[in-house]
Amino acid sequence: MNEQSNSQPVLARDDGFHPIEDQPALILAPDTPPASLADHLDLPLIGIAFPVFHDGRGFTLARRLRELGYKGRLRATGRLIADQYAMARRVGFDEVEVAPDIAARQPQAQWLARADWKAWDHRAQLAG
Q1: Most CB atoms closer than 10 Å: which of 14, 15, 81, 88?
Q2: Beta bridge mates, 104
Q3: Which stretches of 1-128 are DSSP H helices?
Q4: What is the dihedral of CA 22, 52, 84, 2, to 10 degrees?
Q5: What is the mean pLDDT of residues 87-97?
Q6: In terms of C-beta distances under 8 Å and separation of at least 24 residues, what long-range contacts does 26-32 make, across chains too?
Q7: β-pairing verdict for 45-50 and 95-98
Q8: pTM value > 0.70
Q9: Helix (H, G, I), strand (E, B) or coil at 112
Q10: Residue 110: CA atoms inside 13 Å, Cβ hemisphere, count?
Q11: Cα–Cα distance between 38 and 113 in angstroms, integer?
Q12: What does R_g of the chain's alpha carbons equal in angstroms?
């Protein structure tokens, strides 16, 4: 999918925007108790909500699910912005659901610019 329509959210992945074809079996709120995460390890697709872009608790939930052995797909939903894509991928998200208004302001090219998340090293950037 090259660009996004203005009325539907899209999924940002390392290769660009994609239409949403399935929904998570469960969407975890950012205040989900980490102790309850082990109850969901058998689900094929889990969403983690980011009601506002400056609430980072969902990053911790994603990392914890992966540490517990979760092998399914993790989708960040809500209000993440392109600048947060690399962090989302590093903690274990497979994709980010991008709201229509955010996709209009931050088109696919801005998300693709952050798709080199594996090679980006903050410490190396500071040392250079």
Answers
A1: 88
A2: none
A3: 57-67, 85-91, 100-105, 108-112, 122-127
A4: 40
A5: 96
A6: 27/77, 28/58, 28/61, 30/55, 30/57, 30/58, 30/61, 31/57, 32/61
A7: unpaired
A8: yes
A9: helix
A10: 13
A11: 34
A12: 14
Q: What is the pLDDT of residue 79?
A: 96
Element (H, E) at 35: none
The C-alpha atoms of residue 109 and residue 128 are separated, in whole angstroms, by 25
Tokens of 91: 């903690």
Q: Is the domain defined by 10-127 classed in CATH 3.40.50?
A: yes
Task: List, in order, residues 6 or more apart from 30 with CB less than 8 Å away.
Answer: 48, 49, 50, 51, 55, 57, 58, 61
Q: What's the pLDDT at 107?
A: 96
96, with CB counted inside 10 A (0-12, 13-18, 19+), is buried
Q: Rounded to 5 degrees, what angle do the CA atoms 62, 66, 67 make?
A: 115
Give the up-direction half-sphere exposure of residue 23: CA atoms within 13 A in the CB hemisphere: 3
CA nearest neighbour of 91 among 45, 58, 124 = 58
Extents of the domains making up the chain:
10-127
Position 5 scores a pLDDT of: 47
